[in-house]
TrEMBL record:
Segment forming the signal sequence: 1-23
Superkingdom in the source lineage: Bacteria
Source species of the chain: Brevundimonas nasdae
Protein name: DUF3887 domain-containing protein
Keywords on record: Signal
């Protein structure tokens, strides 16, 4: 695995992961953060959206999710995260990992494309192509429309 991909895999595994997963990552066993998204700050009381092929009625949720994701990435690559966009618990987790995650995201380079992939539970999955990396991101919201789940990993080829 390339060093950049390994760093991405580690960041994806620890970004917003529960404390036991952090301990596993530190010990060298890197769990896939996407395998257990329910252990992150899971979105609450949000109605399930229809499948991606459903209708234009779903477009606002996808558009809102994409807009929020672009803002998170821009924050990481710019002046920093806007913690008012996150739930309290998620904001705390991001603050704890910001020193490792921000340089990693900056190293991906400029965003080329953001493509909607599918719904995963109550979160939306996007494929984000940067100058130097292709990634998959999950973003989900709570009932107050705060970002409650945020994960990324290298894109599967």
């Amino acid at each position: 695995m390339k060093p950049t991909l390994m760093k991405t895999a580690i960041a994806a595994a620890v970004l917003l992961a529960p404390v036991p997963a952090l301990a596993q990552a530190a010990a060298g066993a890197v769990p896939n953060a996407f395998d257990r998204p329910a252990q992150t700050a899971a979105p609450q009381a949000r109605p399930a959206a229809a499948p991606a092929t459903a209708s234009a009625a779903q477009a606002p949720d996808i558009a809102r999710s994409e807009e929020a994701l672009r803002a998170v990435i821009a924050g990481a690559q710019g002046t920093g995260f806007d913690y008012s966009d996150f739930t309290t618990g998620l904001g705390t987790q991001i603050r704890q990992q910001e020193a490792q995650v921000v340089p990693l995201i900056k190293g991906f380079g400029a965003v080329k494309t953001v493509e909607y992939v599918k719904q995963e539970g109550e979160a939306q999955m996007f494929r984000v192509t940067f100058d130097n990396q292709v990634t998959e991101w999950l973003i989900g919201f709570d009932a107050e429309d705060k970002i409650a789940a945020l994960l990324f990993r290298p894109a599967e080829r």
